[in-house]
Amino acid sequence: MIGVFDSGLGGLTVVKEIIRLMPTARILYFGDTAHLPYGEKSEEIIKKYTLAACNFLKKRKVKIIVIACHSASSVALDYVKSKISLPVIGVIETGVKTALKKTKNKRIGVIGTRITIKSGAYERVFKNYDKEIEIIARATPLLVPLVEEGWINHPITKEILKIYLEPLKEEEIDTLLLGCTHYPLLKKTIEEIFRNKITIVDSAEELAKSIVDFFDYRKIKRIKGELIIYLTDIPPEFERVARNFLGFSPDKIMRVALQE
Ligand code: DGL
């Protein structure tokens, strides 16, 4: 069983990719909707919530925990790894490795929530692999609410994206890493803004591939997959939002309390 953790429903972009690659996977998803958004919270509180969520998944006997949330991966991954005796993977490393393979001019853009960008986690991992890489990072906090609202192709979203991405264009990046669960939904619009001249790295896709490798999928004989979603709050629009990220309506959704 695969445990997937996110601050809310955005991590379902990763679940969607896992199901695409492994249709018979069994997935327990934990979304901390009561405390969303993490992107605007402090490191201390994100660590506390993330550990509590991972303990919840561990108790339900998952074999691996995937931290799909970039904000949590940025500030809490090492902390959780030091406290939990299970394989825990974050979203940063796989995205970084892919971006490094794609870039030719070594100028890479990263967009994410405020805490993700402020933490400098992406820069650190990039520099671990290649000291010469130039990272142009930008916090793009308005994008999460726009995606949750379903305004994917809305002119306002396009305008905001143009404003956010202009400095990255000027910096002549040739690769852009989408450092947030919600941004894969904006991939097409972002490609248009850059006139398809740069490579966009979708971390959800890359993360899902590394999970397939972990499980050695070909050995799994099951015929049917399963997805159970635990949420710490059931917000009014959760069904519509979940469907936007996942591509279908999940049927097993349960509300749980987070034991801190
Ligand atoms: N899941 C968060 C991330 O990937 C975005 C939503 C939030 O701020 O909680 O950073």
* Rounded mean pLDDT score: 95
Gap between N and C termini: 23 Å
What form results from the Cα inertia axes? globular
Question: Are there runs of 5+ residues with pLDDT below 50, and where?
Answer: none
Tell me the CATH topology of the largest domain. Rossmann fold
Task: Explain what the structure shows.
The chain is an alpha/beta fold. It has 2 domains: 2-90 and 206-255, 3-Layer(aba) Sandwich (Rossmann fold), CATH 3.40.50.1860; 92-203, Rossmann fold (3-Layer(aba) Sandwich). Helix content is 45%, strand content 18%. It contains 11 helices and 10 strands. The chain has helices spanning 12-21, 43-59, 70-83, 92-102, 114-119, 121-129, 143-148, 155-170, 187-193, 203-215, 238-246, and strands at residues 2-6, 26-31, 64-67, 88-89, 107-112, 134-139, 175-179, 199-202, 226-231, 253-255. The chain has a 6-stranded parallel sheet with strand order 4-3-1-2-9-10, sandwiched between helices. Strands 6-5-7-8 form a 4-stranded parallel sheet, with helices on both faces. Helix 9 links the parallel strand 7 and strand 8 (199-202). The chain is globular and about 50 Å long. The relative contact order is 0.19. The model has no long low-confidence stretch (mean pLDDT 95). D-glutamic acid binds next to helix 3.
What's the quick description here?
The protein has 11 helices and 10 strands. The protein is an alpha/beta fold and 260 residues long.
